[in-house]
Amino acid sequence: MRLEILNHGYGPGTKLLFALIRLFSRHPVPDAARLVFYRPDFYGTRAKAFTHEAMRGPSAWSVGDRELMAAYVSEVNGTAFCIGAHTATASQAYQDPPRVAAVLADLETAPVAEPLRATLRMLGTLTREGKVSVEDMRAVLAADATPEQVRDALAVCAAFNTTDRLADAFGFELLSPEGYEAGARYLLKRGYQ
Questions:
Q1: Which long-range contacts (CB under 8 A, 24 or more apart) does 182-189 make?
Q2: Of 2, 60, 68, 86, which residue is 20 to 30 A from 80 by alpha carbon distance?
Q3: Which of 29, 77, 1, 37 is nearest to 182 (CA)?
Q4: Is 163 in contact with 36 (CB distance < 8 Å)?
Q5: Which residues of the chain fall below pLDDT 50?
Q6: Three-state secondary structure call for residue 95
């Protein structure tokens, strides 16, 4: 059920910003952006900072890798808005849409390096079951992911498990393919700030 607050719960300055974004981008402001502008003191400011650090902060994982993690976590959660947004962003970051599609279709046969495959497998387990075992973590480390990469991947997972649940709770509207592509260009240029 979509909450109407995402359509009307803003002050004049934010409404003007949304109008300008729509004018210049020729696309509606995605609900993910609308959510962080609604009560930024309660959620938005902190969420943007955490997500930006997880997705664009220093990491041995590339931006494409982290966007793929976001898409994969969203796929496990079945959150259509976030699947579309982060599939488009990972595809643009890698400049390889078939690779991203292959991971989302079948992780075990997808053309990705073993540290990333093992990490995605662990993130899928964590997302589905809400926990991972010592053996799950050992498998990731045995695949040559570093402890720092595991930490960084867990931050991406936390950010998108939260975002996915909010997207579903607020009934985020799906974008057109062109809307997702425009959003991906924005995220690759500006990040999550």
A1: 182/25, 182/26, 182/27, 183/27, 183/30, 183/85, 183/88, 183/89, 184/85, 184/88, 184/89, 184/91, 184/92, 185/92, 186/25, 187/67, 187/85, 187/89, 188/63, 188/89, 188/92, 188/93
A2: 60
A3: 29
A4: no
A5: none
A6: coil
Q: Supply the pLDDT for residue 15.
A: 87
Which pair of tokens denotes residue 185?
């260009």
Within 13 Å and on the Cβ side, how many CA atoms surround 5?
10
* pLDDT tens digits, one per residue of 26-67: 888 888 888 888 888 888 899 999 999 999 999 999 999 999
pLDDT of residue 3: 66
Task: Name the CATH superfamily for 48-190.
Answer: AhpD-like (1.20.1290.10)
SS3 content of the chain, % helix, strand, coil (to 5): 75, 0, 25
DSSP 150: H
CA 92 to chain centre: 14
Looking at residue 1, what is its pLDDT?
59
The 10s digit of each residue's pLDDT in 175-188 is 999 999 999 999 99
